């Protein structure tokens, strides 16, 4: 599993994440609220809100929930006073970990996240201790069975994408965040379906893990993702292909 492969990281944790749909809706609602609060309630002019709503729809979040979250963000309904934070630290085997946080209580969340790191064999670090190891990219996961590689490359690169690569059973399309919307529209126009499309952090370098280290790192990430204030977790690990099946069977 290549460290830059977002699709592989998603695939190995998908089963566990699917079991947390109720908690996921709460996190998606918070993301919509904060986007609407900062940029207004119109997804046409507020790209951050549009991406948050798109992600909610991709996860089958009910329309009423989405509309309610937008209204809370715009102040039309009472909502939480949320702060956006990024926590950074190290996991087992020196893996760099970044957590995007939305919280109404900074001190409580910091203490709880620090405890998760410590229990799972890592430690919470100072601001910017690992941020330099990552860059933000637009990412699209396209099932390989749904498109010919040459056609996908032609559509994606003409729209401004940087790279198209086969990662397991999916093609991974990477692009600069500035052209994310353009690439997304090009894929939609070409009727090329995506399993997932998002702007996320990609690691510049990776730490290759053995089986036990992989289990420890994935347990840390899972525990962090379970926390209600943690929106997303990114880490710079790499797991060899021959260990994937065994790990998937135990998660």
Poorly predicted sequence stretches spanning 5 or more consecutive residues: 1-8
Q: Describe the largest sheet.
A: 4 strands, antiparallel
**CATH class value of the largest domain:** Alpha Beta
Helix share bin? 40-55%
In round numbers, the mean pLDDT is 88
Termini separation comes to 16 Å
How many E-type strands? 10
**What is the CATH H-level superfamily of the largest domain?**
YebC, transcriptional regulation domain
The tally of helices reads 9
Q: Could you say what the CATH architecture of the largest domain is?
A: 2-Layer Sandwich
What is the domain tally? Answer: 3
Alpha carbon gyration radius: 18 Å
Helix- and strand-based class?
A: alpha+beta
State the order of secondary-structure elements, H for helix, E for strand: HHHHEEHEEHEEHEEHEEH
CATH topology of the largest domain: Alpha-Beta Plaits
List the strand order in the largest sheet: 3-1-2-9
Bulk shape: globular
Strand fraction band?
15-25%
Characterise the protein shown here.
With 251 residues, this protein is α+β, with helices and mostly antiparallel strands. The chain has 9 helices and 10 strands. The chain has 3 domains: 6-73, Arc Repressor Mutant, subunit A; 83-132 and 205-250, YebC, transcriptional regulation domain (Alpha-Beta Plaits); 133-203, YebC, transcriptional regulation domain (Alpha-Beta Plaits, 2-Layer Sandwich), CATH 3.30.70. The longest helix has 19 residues, at 21-39. The two termini are 16 Å apart. Mean pLDDT is 88; it is low at 1-8.
